[in-house]
Structure formats: structure tokens, C-alpha cells
Amino acid sequence: MTDYASVQALHKSTSAFSPYIPLSLLPYIAFLLLGATFALAFYFSTLPNEKIPARELAVASTASLLGGFGVVAMFCTAGVYV
């Protein structure tokens, strides 16, 4: 029981969690990231076909990364903390 008591005392003595990014900025971040994702998706659809699709890969990877972070920011804005 001494282990549980020490963990409980440590838990009570620590400060509350505070995020690095304020919650009030999350809607704006989500809008910015998802807007950039849609813009890059449109740009991706207008790229010409090439033998080595390096530009397509870069644009698609960037859009995917921004879209993932944008969806997480949107969920956190709605109160679903993932």
C-alpha cells in the first residue's frame, strides 16, 4: 500500500495539465490547415502526368499531413480530444 499512497500523493501534488496551444486558437488552426489541404488537393488534380511523379508525391504527402493535423484540430475544437 505504500506504493499506492506515494503515487496518490504525487498525483495530488502535481499541477493540472495545460496545453502548449491555447484552446481558443484551435478553430483557426483547423480552418487554416483544412483550407490548405483543399487547396493542395485542387493543385494536385491539375498537375500534368510525369514519368517520375516526384512533385505529385510531395504535394500529396503535404496535403495528407496537413489534413491529418487539421482533422485532429477540428475534433479537439468540437470537444473530442483525440
TrEMBL record:
Keyword Transcription among record annotations: no
Cellular component aspect of the GO annotation: oligosaccharyltransferase complex
Membrane topology: Multi-pass membrane protein
Record Pfam families: Ost5
Transmembrane segments: 20-45, 57-81
Location of the protein in the cell: Membrane
Biological-process GO terms, alphabetical: protein N-linked glycosylation
InterPro entries on file: TMEM258/Ost5 (IPR007915)
Assigned keywords, A-Z: Membrane, Transmembrane, Transmembrane helix
Top-rank taxon: Eukaryota
Record-stated family: Belongs to the OST5 family.
Quaternary structure annotation from Swiss-Prot or TrEMBL: Component of the oligosaccharyltransferase (OST) complex.
UniProt function note: Subunit of the oligosaccharyl transferase (OST) complex that catalyzes the initial transfer of a defined glycan (Glc(3)Man(9)GlcNAc(2) in eukaryotes) from the lipid carrier dolichol-pyrophosphate to an asparagine residue within an Asn-X-Ser/Thr consensus motif in nascent polypeptide chains, the first step in protein N-glycosylation. N-glycosylation occurs cotranslationally and the complex associates with the Sec61 complex at the channel-forming translocon complex that mediates protein translocation across the endoplasmic reticulum (ER). All subunits are required for a maximal enzyme activity.
Protein name: Dolichyl-diphosphooligosaccharide-protein glycosyltransferase subunit OST5
Species, as recorded: Trametes coccinea (strain BRFM310) (Pycnoporus coccineus)
